[in-house]
Write a structure and sequence with these properties.
Number of strands: 6
Helix content: 55-70%
Number of helices: 18
Radius of gyration: 25 Å
Low-confidence stretches: 1-22, 481-487
Mean pLDDT: 84
Distance between the termini: 26 Å
Oligomer: single chain
Order of helices and strands: HHHHHHHHEEEEHHEEHHHHHHHH
Length: 487
């Protein structure tokens, strides 16, 4: 087979898709632009449906949000076209649809809150304008990462430093006074005079970079086999230090910050990255056993963990108290059924935190089981394209980094969806790109920018390669006969 022509790729404009006799790799930016345009039409139509069902008329907010959405992702597309022209063409459109559907649902809940306030209800502050602002800042971070990070392998040089910074960010809210870090009983936040952020969202990315660099440098340590028990090759006891360190971090987060979600997320990602590096199931089994023990100890020691487990087992035991949120979420999903009540025609605003922790429940009520499955498939497609880029990239660090980042997305969605549907205890994690809030949006756009950089590296033609034009096949009547032996 002919190799891609580096010269042809360099000579073509950054955003073009050079397909011709030279066999140059297409950039597929035109496909991305078409999908982004489709996403803009879909989100604008959803905003129109929401306003038509809620207000019985259309307001200028539809125009504002539609234009802002189109301008923001048009700028993001230009940045991808300029700095990562060979990146996967489906990653950014998937993110755009998820972000847009989240904005639609947040706007829909804002309209319900404004209506309640007009009827004498509590004072309400709209979240959709803030979400547009945070999306703007998140996409600015996205562009800055694409422009500054020319090669993802640069991150490996600073792996230990980034890991130390990430650990500090992760544990910082836990050591601060509750007045500076506690919201709804969990010490996850850093309350500054001008804004409130969640450092753990950024710590997740830094720790994944650290573990990818560490596993590349110490892979032999994890590959050394110890005794064989029941056909399973166990690692040597002295090699368990990194795994025990990750377990200690997860338990420390759970103990200091009352945060079951981040501890589950971080430890799950570490286990999967170790499995990707070693392809040995023993590490996963050995990691799960002490983590399950730590969860049991946390259940016995921490009251908030017991409350969440009780709500998971039977939320209807206290439907107006501790189980109110979960029971209303289940009622909403049941009301939506297969096809949903329609955008703006349900009552998802009854569920507390419907625009953040339980936004998937709101989607399930108004778009039904089919709509919820479509959203989950978008998340799965996003993670699969990230995994595909990780498999295609040539360096081991990029494979581990891309695999860890992509898995963290799908793992977080599983934990969130499992929590709102009572599959597992609710953890307080938010749905990436959809839930209201700034920290999650900023961190996830940085994550996607790194994934696009890895994808660009995987698809970009190697410098110095020369491709030969494909020779046309001879007509069938003139083709030579080749004799082969029967095997």
């Amino acid at each position: 087979m002919s190799q891609p022509a580096a010269g042809g790729a360099a000579a073509a404009p950054a955003g073009s898709a050079p397909i011709g006799p030279s066999g140059a790799t297409p950039t597929r930016r035109g496909t991305e632009l078409f999908l982004l345009a489709f996403a803009a039409v879909l989100v604008t139509a959803a905003l129109v449906l929401v306003e038509a069902n809620q207000e019985q008329s259309l307001t200028m907010q539809v125009v504002y949000y539609g234009v802002a959405y189109l301008a923001l992702f048009g700028a993001a597309h230009y940045a991808v076209r300029r700095w990562t022209p060979y990146a996967d063409p489906l990653i950014l459109p998937c993110v755009a649809v998820l972000n847009g559907l989240g904005l639609v649902m947040i706007h829909r809940l804002d309209l319900a809150g404004a209506e309640r306030m007009a009827q004498g209800g509590p004072v309400f502050h709209a979240s959709a304008p803030k979400q547009v602002l945070w999306t703007t800042i998140g996409l600015l971070f996205f562009v800055l990462v694409l422009a500054a990070l020319k090669d993802h392998r640069t991150l490996a040089r600073y792996g230990y430093t980034l890991g130390l910074v990430g650990l500090g960010l992760l544990l910082l809210p836990g050591v601060l006074p509750s007045s500076l870090s506690a919201v709804n009983g969990a010490k996850l936040w850093l309350k500054l005079p001008f804004l409130t952020i969640q450092p753990g969202e950024f710590a997740k990315i830094l720790l994944i970079v650290f573990f990818a660099a560490f596993l590349v440098a110490k892979r032999d340590l994890f590959m050394a086999a110890g005794r064989k028990v029941l056909g399973l090759e166990l690692p040597r006891p002295r090699d368990l230090g990194p795994l025990l360190g990750a377990l200690a971090v997860a338990v420390g987060v759970l103990a200091l910050e009352s945060d079951l979600g981040n501890s589950l997320l971080i430890f799950g990602v570490v286990l999967v990255m170790i499995y990707i590096a070693t392809e040995r199931a023993a590490w996963v089994i050995i990691g799960l056993i002490p983590f399950m023990g730590a969860c049991y100890v946390a259940y016995r020691l921490f009251g908030h963990v017991r409350i969440r487990v009780a709500n998971w087992i039977n939320p209807l035991a206290d439907p107006t108290g501790a189980g109110y949120q979960m029971s209303q979420s289940l009622f909403g999903l049941g009301t939506g059924g297969i096809f949903g009540t329609g955008l703006g025609a349900g009552r998802p605003d009854i569920v507390p935190e419907a625009n953040s922790d339980f936004i998937l429940s709101s989607i399930g009520e108004e778009l039904g089981l089919l709509g919820l499955f479509a959203v989950l498939m978008l998340y799965l497609l996003l993670a699969m394209r990230g995994m595909r880029s990780a498999l295609a990239v040539r360096d081991t660090f990029g494979k581990l980094l891309g695999g860890g980042l992509a898995f963290s997305l799908v793992w977080q969605v599983f934990v969130v969806a499992g929590g709102v549907t009572k599959l597992i205890p609710e953890t307080g994690l938010t749905s990436p790109f959809m839930s209201a809030g700034g920290s999650s949006l900023l961190a996830n756009y940085v994550l996607v920018a790194v994934l696009l950089r890895i994808s660009d590296s995987a698809r970009r033609p190697r410098p110095g390669t020369v491709s030969r034009p494909m020779q046309p096949l001879a007509p069938l009547a003139e083709a030579h006969t080749v004799m082969v032996e029967r095997p």
